[in-house]
Design a protein that fits this description.
The protein is mainly alpha-helical and 456 residues long. The chain has 20 helices and no strands. It has helices spanning 3-6, 22-33, 36-48, 52-80, 86-92, 95-131, 140-148, 152-169, 172-199, 204-212, 221-234, 241-246, 255-283, 293-304, 309-342, 347-367, 383-410, 414-418, 422-447, 450-455. The radius of gyration is 21 Å and the shape is globular. The structure holds 4-fluoro-L-phenylalanine (PFF). 4-fluoro-L-phenylalanine is lined by residues 32-33, 35-38, 108, 233-234, 236, 239, 241, 327, 330-331.
């Protein structure tokens, strides 16, 4: 059978604009990795699982799981020069593998539908914080509930998707690359500024100790699985994003070195986020194990009690919005690249159609967190949670496993494409072929509840 017929236009990037410069790729990949995962999810999960020891575990998972998978995904994208599905097909000629790549496309699409909801919340909070109106009413929980219970999140989600669409329409090098080259350094400057402010608060030391001093007695089997899932999400793996980005990387760029740079970049942002949030929570006597409300409900209370709180609060939420936007752009690129080549459409049409469909799925998600659709439950979860659950707990590990098995066992030239040699190649293959698949399967069984079922 003719491979070209199954995927009509999977020849990969065809114009020079569809390629990153070397530095541009590092910025774009860090932009994808650094997002709500680092600044919103990482602190509250680290808080919940006891601080320092969990952070060490997270670092370990970044090194032994996320890094090998990142190298594999980038190699698949660059080797196949196609989208998240056709890259598999071009390297193997197998429809089964093309189908497995499609899991990532669907996952990215679903994740974007609710990621853009939370990104919209952050943009709203940035605006409210700068205007000072966030601090005029100290009932932050009530404010959060009133906002998420209204129609307003739909508007802010629309704004987020419109910005993403605008960037994507500009293309890879003049859109995604330029956007990240400005935002990523901007983000680090604001973050460092906030970190210095947080560390100067009276009582901040206890927060630093909680975050960085490990107490390994707090670790459980569950924290190990949680750290792995977080490392995966935080490095944008299993969703075709890094495969799609890989197809825009120049042949001469070493994927091993680039991946280490992206991993270190991602880790630095998580470290700085922790050094803002934990000193602040401890300085204001707030319990760090608050859950998802930590950023939206707890931190405004802390900012309001700080000198120039509305300025710092505003900066913090702008930063959160920036980080969320750079990640959302990379999520939108995955289905856009797929639609573009699968149906032979222009970038413009593919991006517009994809955004409309994401928005159509995102609106019910936005209205289900306390809003008019919050009474609708599927398997006991609201629409937002069920989309998150299917995408993050089922599709994401499956998508990650597909890339791992493919680069480890099916496509023999993955290591060569990545530019790995000698001992590094051996370590990478061992992790990819043995350790990573076992751990991903464990995460999958645990997050779907199957592990408890098997063990009991
Ligand atoms: N890595 C992003 C974060 O930590 O917020 C989330 C993400 C972006 C996941 C893009 C996957 C992806 F393809």
């Amino acid at each position: 059978m003719n491979k070209q017929q199954a995927h009509p236009s999977d020849a990969g990037p065809s114009n020079p604009g569809d390629q990153f410069s070397k530095a541009g790729f590092i910025f774009a990949a860090i932009g994808s990795a650094v997002g709500l995962g680092n600044l919103w999810k990482f602190p509250y999960i680290t808080g919940k699982f006891g601080g320092g020891a969990f952070f060490m575990l997270f670092i370990l998972c970044l090194i032994i799981i996320a890094l090998p998978v990142l190298i594999a995904e980038l190699a698949i994208g660059r080797g196949g020069r196609g989208n998240a599905s056709s890259s598999f097909y071009k390297l193997s000629g197998s429809k089964f593998w093309a189908g497995s790549g499609l899991i990532g496309v669907v996952a990215a699409f679903m994740i974007l539908s609710f990621y853009s909801v939370v990104a919209g919340w952050t943009v709203y909070y940035a605006v409210k914080s700068f205007s000072g109106s966030l601090f005029s009413n100290p009932d932050y929980n009530g404010q959060f509930e009133a906002f998420t219970g209204s129609w307003s999140p739909v508007f802010w989600q629309f704004i987020v998707l419109a910005i993403c669409l605008f960037v994507i329409l500009k293309g890879v090098s003049s859109g995604i690359e330029k956007f990240n080259k400005v935002l990523i350094p901007g983000l680090v400057i604001v973050l460092l500024f906030l970190m210095v402010q947080a560390l100067r608060l009276p009582g901040a030391g206890a927060g630093v100790e909680f975050f960085l001093k490990p107490d390994f007695s707090k670790l459980t089997g569950h924290s190990v699985l949680e750290a792995m899932g977080l490392a995966f999400f935080s490095m944008s793996l299993g969703m075709g994003a890094m495969i799609t980005f890989g197809s825009y990387v120049q042949k001469e760029q070493s994927l091993g070195t680039a991946s280490i740079a992206v991993g270190l970049g991602n880790l630095s942002y998580a470290l700085i986020a922790g050094l803002i949030i934990f000193p602040t929570t401890f300085a204001f006597g707030i319990e760090p194990a608050q859950g998802p409300g930590l950023v939206f409900v707890v931190l405004p209370a802390a900012f309001s009690a700080m000198p120039f709180g509305s300025l710092f609060g505003g900066l913090f939420f702008v930063l959160l919005a920036m980080a969320a936007l750079t990640s959302a752009v990379s999520l939108l690129e995955v289905p856009t690249a797929y639609v573009m080549s699968r149906w032979n459409l222009s970038r413009k049409k593919a991006a517009v159609y994809t955004t409309i469909v994401v928005f159509a799925l995102g609106v019910p998600a936005a209205l289900s967190v306390g809003g008019v659709l919050s009474d609708i439950h599927i398997f006991g979860k609201n629409i937002f949670d069920i989309i998150d659950y299917i995408a993050s707990n089922i599709l994401l590990p499956l998508g990650g496993l597909a890339g791992t098995i493919f680069a480890g066992y099916v496509w023999k030239k993955a290591g060569e494409e990545a530019g790995l040699q000698g001992i590094w190649y051996k370590i990478w293959r061992f992790l990819l072929c043995v350790i990573t698949p076992i751990l991903i399967v464990l995460v999958f069984l645990s997050s779907t509840g199957l592990l408890d079922w098997i063990i009991v």
